[in-house]
Amino acid sequence: MTRVLPYLLVVLLSLGACSSMKIDDFAGTDPDFRPETYFAGPSRAWGMFEDRFGNLKREFTVDLQGDWDGTTLILTEDFLYSDGETEQRIWHITKTGDGTYEGRADDVVGVANGVARGKALNWSYDLMLKVGDSRIKVSFDDWMFLQPDGVLINRAEVSKFGITIGTVTLFFQKGALPESASSGRRKTAA
């Protein structure tokens, strides 16, 4: 057993060393993803939430409308969940430097920080997540990857106290929404 322990330790350390992506690994990759241009105008997303055991818990669609004024992107997200519940989040995203962003929304605690390199964007933020009639504070490690033809893949790890509680996966498509799909869905901001 004492001979196996050093090998086991090396294997465990090796697994931990290669487990996280770094945004700079995507520098120079194509297509180049800039949220301020991608999200300007209408787009739609299809998503799902899986718990930490891989069980599908919730599906949803999101109609998005972005307005970029050269400094700030106001991104309105209208969610429709498979159970009929609706929700709206309005992001105010500011470009703070070359490929760096800050975002604010009513249910985001503090400021969301993002860095874009090549085809990828990594967002980190805390969110007051609605669960039943209450809200709990969770952390998002959000990765977006732009694909050819305007498809954007988004995968977010959701955690509480550093423990992963689930994963959100979304697929975005840029462009005009069919009138029948978006009518009656958009709520006005209070």
Strand line-up across the major sheet: 1-2-3-4-5-6-7-8-9-10
| Overall pLDDT level | 87
Overall structural domain count: 1
**Helical content (DSSP H or I, runs of 4+):** 10-25%
Q: Count the beta strands.
A: 10
- CATH hierarchy, class: Mainly Beta
CATH topology: Lipocalin
N-to-C terminal Cα separation, in Å? 65 Å
- Please describe the biggest sheet, giving its number of strands, its sense, and whether it closes into a barrel: 10 strands, antiparallel, barrel
How large is the share of residues in beta strands? over 45%
The number of helical segments is 3
Offer a quick outline of the entry.
This protein has 190 residues and is mainly β.
Key words describing this protein structure:
single chain, Lipocalin, 57% strand, mainly beta, 10 strands, 10-stranded antiparallel beta barrel, 190 residues, disordered C terminus
Tell me what you see in this structure.
- The protein has 190 residues and is mainly β.
- It has a single domain (23-182), classed as Lipocalin, CATH 2.40.128.20.
- It has helices at 4-17, 35-38, 179-182, and strands at 41-51, 56-68, 72-81, 86-97, 100-104, 108-117, 120-131, 134-146, 151-160, 163-174.
- It has a ten-stranded antiparallel barrel with strand order 1-2-3-4-5-6-7-8-9-10.
- A hairpin with a 4-residue loop joins β3 (72-81) and β4.
- The longest helix has 14 residues, at 4-17.
